[in-house]
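Q: Hi! Curious about what Neprosin PEP catalytic domain-containing protein looks like structurally. Here's the sequence.
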Amino acid sequence: MFSKSWFFFLFVLCILFSLVVESRVINETRFKPMEEMKKMRRVRAHLKKINKPSVKTIQSPDGDLIDCVATHLQPAFDHPKLRGQKPLEPPSERPKGHNSTDEIYETIQLWAQSNELCPEGTIPIRRTTEKDVLRASSLRRFGRKIRRVRRDTSSGGHEHAVAFVNGDQYYGAKASMNVWTPAVTDAYEFSLSQLWVISGSFGNDLNTIEAGWQVSPELYGDGYPRFFTYWTTDAYRATGCYNLLCSGFVQTNNRIAIGAAISPRSSYNGKQFDIGVMIWKDPKHGHWWLQFGSGVLIGYWPSFLFSHLQKQASMIQFGGEVVNSRSKGYHTSTQMGSGHFADEGFGKAAYFRNLQVVDWDNSLLPLTNLHLLADHSNCYNIKAGKNNAWGNYIYYGGPGRNAGCQ
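A: Let's find out. The predicted structure is below.
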């Protein structure tokens, strides 16, 4: 039999235990809001850094806000080597063999369909919101590709179907690619089609310049294909970012918003819509310029951002990339390109046409010694060809998970 004193001792012990638990719960509930407050302060400080004061804001049909920011106030000029400067004038000449030096403006972005544009002396920048940042797994990850890279393409869940040339010195590349709306089935995956200008080893010193279109629910909050750019000088470890989300790319154009949705898009067995992209190194100043659409200059990556690409590129790639997170334990159903294999051809598969490179003499040349690489050809594949109308071309893409891709 227990004595009364023993029961009293147990009673007191229970009270003390409940007080300790209650105190811990109170402390945790206090701690969580404090952590949330700190996180939101960091997010808002970051937004203040990248969202510059605008002279005008345009509402896009897809919900984006496009801020018209004075060119000298854009994020690029936060860089110590650019602070206090203004954008350079466009290069006096483009690569030899380029069809035209005229800038032909087409309405190829949703925000510009109202014909309300940013005034001269400003550039359009897609406004970044708190929701945009909070969708990322961390503030460090926001606006960046984070992955490990190996020699052929990459690891860490990134899969490719690409055509590439290497073994020479390259000073740029050009191609036209059709635009689709591939399904992305996981919030942290993306699907893109782009060209890569590459130099350095596939290790910590990899330099890349990239441009094309992508669907990225994490970055943009929707499934629209969007015109994008990227760069890195250390294999995606600490440098570089998408679009204008860090100091780097200098935009000079007031009519194209990097990161804004592209419209129209291609349809299966229907009309095909493609965009032209050219990246080349200006022989005079050494910076890497970007051209989009029908001859429209967008801006440039200053050469000082890079190590190896201060001189030239050693590889050019064209094609598609997806993230396969295997979040459900099997291969993703995220589509590449149209979501159909290369074998289906025109009107059904995604393509790149008129693939060219820029040589040491600033001339556009057709490709020689073209290589094809598909990380998992049962999931996404690629085929190449050549004819008089399209020059060098590729079909690529696929559905992801299927009977042959598990």
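A: A fun detail: The two ends are 65 Å apart (CA to CA).
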